[in-house]
Write a structure and sequence with these properties.
Layout (H helix, E strand, L loop, with lengths): L5 H28 L10 H22 L12 H22 L4 H8 L2 H13 L5 H18 L9 H23 L4 H20 L8 H27 L2 H8 L2 H13 L5 H23 L1
């Protein structure tokens, strides 16, 4: 594919837009998870419940306004959808807990280890082969994670373990998405995922529920709406362009996350964090390009 074509340019622009919104969801989650003028921080389970419930309501509003777009649920692979939604919910919850306790850009970078997890699972579950390229990509990503986490030093943050858990669950989720994408239309996957995620997250949040302040309600609504918009842009980008062309644009989420963190909280990433993030992205991109070439 010619990367200079208008279609490809639009696909890349859509992916950058998705990245901007994904970074915004992490920032909103951080605001909800820390104590502020809006009140005490909300539990990550409650934050993820807001993400799924209001995303589902936003998606429902869209489908009501465009009935022709409503996907049929006939033939849905419910067991795969359930596993995907459980892993997605756990990944999002861990990520929201991490960003409330460490810089957004660093937590985001660590979560980008999920392609490495997906690679390992693909070998075990899908029977894919491990190549030299994959070993190199894994080495780069692991080295980057160690630079950010710096275990054994005073800079080590336990919140990083939550970001690692997020990467693990997101890696599992990617395997299920890969299986579903072979037979399921994208809008059906989006609808079922948010529906199941809403059910699971609301049950979990009921055990830690605290009444949100007015500002927190607004942020919870914004979190869900922004997330479903990000998902939509991501899907549209992937439909319009090759993965090897558009996926590099997704990693601009790190730039947006660092920018948001600096503007709102005055947080600047350390040199070690920048180098670590670059290594993780390099490893993830190596895997993405390999997958796109077969």
């Amino acid at each position: 594919m010619d990367t200079r074509t208008p279609a490809t340019t639009k696909a890349v622009a859509l992916m950058v837009g998705a990245s901007l919104l994904v970074a915004a969801t992490s920032l909103i989650a951080k605001r909800l998870g820390i104590e502020s003028g809006a009140g005490a921080g909300l539990n990550p389970f409650q934050v993820s419940a807001g993400r799924f419930v209001f995303a589902l309501l936003a998606l429902g509003a869209f489908l009501s306004a465009a009935p022709a777009s409503r996907p049929s649920l006939k033939g849905a692979r419910w067991s795969w959808h359930l596993m995907r939604s459980l892993c997605g919910w756990l990944g999002v919850t861990c990520m929201f807990a991490a960003v409330a306790r460490m810089p957004v850009a660093e937590a985001t970078a660590i979560s980008f280890l999920n392609p490495l997890v997906t690679m390992g699972l693909a070998v075990l579950i899908l029977g894919e082969r491990i190549t030299v390229r994959k070993y190199v990509a894994a080495g780069l990503a692991i080295a980057g994670a160690l630079l950010i986490l710096r275990p054994g030093t005073d800079a080590f943050q336990m919140a990083g373990i939550l970001a690692l858990a997020a990467a693990l669950f997101m890696g599992f989720e990617a395997i299920f998405i890969k299986r579903l994408s072979d037979t399921e239309p994208a809008l059906r996957v989006l609808l079922i995922n948010n529906s199941l995620g809403a059910c699971v997250s609301v049950i979990a949040a009921s055990f830690v529920w605290s009444v949100p302040s007015a500002e927190q309600w607004v942020l919870l609504v914004a979190l869900g709406v922004v997330m479903v918009c990000a998902q939509s842009l991501f899907i549209q980008s992937m439909k319009r362009g090759e993965a090897s062309v558009v996926m590099p644009a997704f990693y601009t989420v790190l730039v947006f996350a660092a920018f948001y963190d600096f503007v709102l909280y005055g947080v600047l990433p350390s040199y070690a964090a920048v180098i670590g993030a670059a290594l993780i992205v390099a490893g993830a991109l190596a895997l993405a390009v390999r997958r796109s070439r077969g």
